[in-house]
Amino acid sequence: MIFICAGFGVMFGGATRSFAQTDPPEPMVGNYRAAAVTESEVVSAANYAVKAQAKKQKAKIKLIAVSRAEKQVVAGLNYRLCLQVEVKEKGKKSAVLQTVQTIVFLNLKQKFALTEWAIAACTDELPTGVSNK
């Protein structure tokens, strides 16, 4: 009888441990989740955003810091970033510090695309109607 009880204890005790979730859950499609600002893909996305916006704006833009980063799983990844940048427009003598919110899309072929760039205080979402298009 003791061996039977011990056997059930091992079987069911091991089963409860195997069902216990110790790792954080995987991000769900559609939800933004916090990402480390030092993560290599976050840094790459931030650098890409600055380069792409500098080209579009025809200005010198320098990345000062990534203040916040989030990822969203879609058919690829969206990186929603809060950046501190220094912008020097053509013909201007001095640069201006700006806080911008940006979204960079990383497609399944590992190519970045800048989809949003807004000069704004960092909030949970980009201001409605602000786009890089």
Break the fold down into its secondary structure elements and pairings.
Layout (H helix, E strand, L loop, with lengths): L1 H18 L12 E3 L5 H18 L1 E16 L1 E14 L6 E11 L5 E8 L14
Antiparallel strand pairs: 1-2, 2-3, 3-4, 4-5
Order of helices and strands: HEHEEEE
The gross shape turns out to be globular
Helix and strand content put the structural class at: alpha+beta
Q: So what's the CATH class?
A: Alpha Beta
Number of strands: 5
CATH architecture classification: Roll
Low-confidence stretches: 126-133
Radius of gyration in whole Å, from Cα? 23 Å
Sheet with most strands: 5 strands, antiparallel
The count of domains is 1
Distance between the termini: 74 Å
Helical segment count: 2
**Largest beta sheet: strand ordering:** 1-2-3-4-5
- Report the average pLDDT across residues: 81
In percent, how much strand structure appears in the residues? 35-45%
**Helical percentage:** 25-40%
Q: What is the CATH topology assignment?
A: Nuclear Transport Factor 2, Chain: A
